[in-house]
Amino acid sequence: MSASLSRPRVGVWLIGARGSVATTVVTGCAAITAGLHPPTGMVTETPAFADIGLPALSDLVFGGHDTLDCPLPKRAETLTAGGVLPPGVATAVAAELEAADREIRPGGPTSGDTRSETELITAFADDIRDFVHRHELERAVVVNVASTEPASQGPDAPPPASTLYALAALRAGCPYVNFTPSEGIHHPAAAREAERSGLPYAGRDGKTGQTLLRAVLGPMFAQRALRVRAWSGTNLLGGGDGAALADPAAAAAKNAGKERVLADTLGTVPEGEVHIDDVPALGDWKTAWDHIAFDGFLGTRMILQTIWQGCDSALAAPLVLDLARLTARAHEAGLSGPLDALGFYFKDPVGDGPSGLAEQYEELTRFGRNLGRADEEGHGVGPVEHPDDVGEAL
């Protein structure tokens, strides 16, 4: 069947396309499409999101940027050996992994790269446009799943790589999702262009483990009128994320979102900090421990401790697929600006919205219902044309 007669397809352009999360996303999407595994962890595959016009998993086409050159099939083998991917799955979807790997383009800036910021943005945007054109895609969503960058050095600091990729997404006319704590579209230059572009965007920092629990437990203490005195946490993790977060500046960017959830749900900031320790032997697995000291009736002092042990990539991958589908549908429906309702997925969401998980889920399901009614109410469904001068002000 020719491309023109087939169902419209949607691109998912991954920044950090050869990392653990991206590899798990591509492998998982192919495995679910082939019927090898159920879509466990994908909220968009639950009944609440049926029949709202989301692109089918089988209609997603993957590509991306990365500075690494390890092919996706080889990366999948490594993840299988580490217990991240089930045995045999990577082999069964090898063709899909190879197809996605052919669509990965060199990222940057790399050591010795003499291109200016504007030249990098132009090159990245051209790669995305070429991907959309060659595959005759209806639209594409750019999702940042690269390693965490150090925290911003202020509005006058040069834009980091994540911001260059965000500006490239806007120039290419693509919605943007930041699944990392990196600055991305939050940089003033990118924020201005995002507002001007008329594109939808979401982020930042996917909520997969420790902060997910905090978004549930924080409201519980507030609703039961229990006074939290201290809340301390420790994270042990390996892999690329562990190595990146060994940098105190990167860890600070990560912890900002964790602290925001407590401040918003408790109405105050309790004593205590979050510590992140790089343990290379853990690979893609992580352990998060929280120690919560609180006062009950008549000042009785009590303690709650939680331990979360999980596989970071397996926790993140279904959320990335959800976000790509929901953001693509929002773009199709003509929505623009920050997608507040996707705060359910993030530690530090853009826009305004609740911080408690239950309220965030209500917002998300309401958003889904509105997307389902968008075509009936006559919202625009075509891609938006965008100027080519994004990034010129850098």
Helix content: 25-40%
Sheet/helix structural class: alpha/beta
> For the report, how would you describe the main beta sheet?
7 strands, parallel
Strand content: 15-25%
The overall pLDDT, averaged over residues, is 90
The dominant shape is globular
How much is the radius of gyration in Å? 21 Å
SSE sequence, one letter per element: EHEHHHEHEHEHEHEHHEEEHEH
Number of helices: 12
Low-confidence stretches: 1-5, 379-387
> What is the end-to-end distance?
44 Å
What are the SSEs and their pairings?
Blueprint: E1 10-15, H1 20-33, E2 60-66, H2 72-81, H3 89-92, H4 94-101, E3 104-106, H5 117-134, E4 139-144, H6 161-171, E5 176-178, H7 188-197, E6 200-203, H8 210-223, E7 227-237, H9 239-245, H10 248-266, E8 274-278, E9 285-295, E10 301-311, H11 312-332, E11 337-338, H12 357-374
Parallel strand pairs: 1-2, 1-4, 2-3, 4-5, 5-6, 6-11, 7-8
Antiparallel strand pairs: 7-9, 9-10
Helix pairs in contact: 1-2, 1-11, 5-6, 6-7, 8-10
Pfam families: Inos-1-P_synth (PF01658), NAD_binding_5 (PF07994)
Region (Disordered): 375-394
Protein name: Inositol-3-phosphate synthase
In short, what is this structure?
The protein is an alpha/beta fold and 394 residues long.
Describe the structure.
With 394 residues, the chain is of the alpha/beta class. The chain contains 12 helices and 11 strands. The protein has a 7-stranded parallel sheet, with helices on both faces. Strands 8-7-9-10 form a 4-stranded mixed sheet. Helix 1 packs across helix 11. The radius of gyration is 21 Å and the shape is globular. Mean pLDDT is 90; it is low at 1-5 and 379-387.
